[in-house]
Specification:
The protein is an alpha/beta fold. It has one domain (about 1-115, about 155-185): P-loop containing nucleotide triphosphate hydrolases (Rossmann fold), CATH 3.40.50.300. The protein is built from 9 helices and 5 strands. α1 (about 15-25) crosses α9 (about 175-185) and α2 (about 30-40) packs across α3 (about 45-55). The longest helix has 15 residues, at about 115-130.
Length: about 190
């Protein structure tokens, strides 16, 4: 099964991705982890990405898409995978779609975890206090959410048009949310 998971900051994408991968026996592919692994391995594409990262710039979409292509083409992805953290913008989604088509892969579902914005802010503030995270302050959280809704939310329509979008309530107990996800993708 080939999936992607998305949702606003603090909705629990990473937590749910870890649980879903275990339940479905597929890989959880975090774009950030893939990117760091390519840089660490000093691959050609990783070195291209590092040039941007070293200057604090975003890695261009064509490089991210190529890195994802390299990763999902490996044999350990044959049983399926769950993309987490990519795509984040409509051009990335379009590029991912074309790339996947070129290697005969197809996303089966795009899972969008939803939650009330005020509850997410409260959740992230609590996480910041518990873990000492400097990026979990009310101002930073609101900025991250604004960026999400401006850049990533258009993906909802993109995947809705493809009839693969599954919206799932991301609030509640962790196992309960996992069951909701499994229910809508089966």
């Amino acid at each position: 099964m080939k999936l992607l998971i998305m949702g606003p900051p603090g909705v629990g994408k990473g937590t749910q991705a870890d649980r879903i991968k275990d339940k479905l026996e597929i890989l959880h592919l975090s774009t950030g982890d893939i990117l760091r692994a390519e840089v660490e391995a000093k691959s050609a594409i990783g070195m291209d990405a590092k040039l941007y990262m070293d200057f604090g710039k975003l890695v261009p979409d064509h490089i991210l898409i190529e890195i994802v292509k390299e990763r999902i083409s490996k044999p350990d992805c044959d049983n399926g995978y769950l993309l987490d953290g990519f795509p984040r913008t409509l051009p990335q989604a379009e590029g991912l779609d074309k790339m996947m088509h070129s290697i005969k892969h197809e996303l089966e579902w795009a899972i969008s975890l939803t939650a009330n914005e005020d509850e997410l802010v409260a959740r992230l503030i609590k996480r910041g206090e518990e873990l000492g995270r400097s990026d979990d302050t009310p101002d930073v959280i609101r900025k991250r959410q604004k960026i999400y809704w401006e850049k990533t939310a258009p993906l909802l329509d993109f995947y809705l048009d493809k009839s693969i979008l599954k919206e799932v309530d991301g609030l509640g107990e962790i196992p309960e949310i996992t069951e909701r996800i499994l229910h809508v993708i089966k």
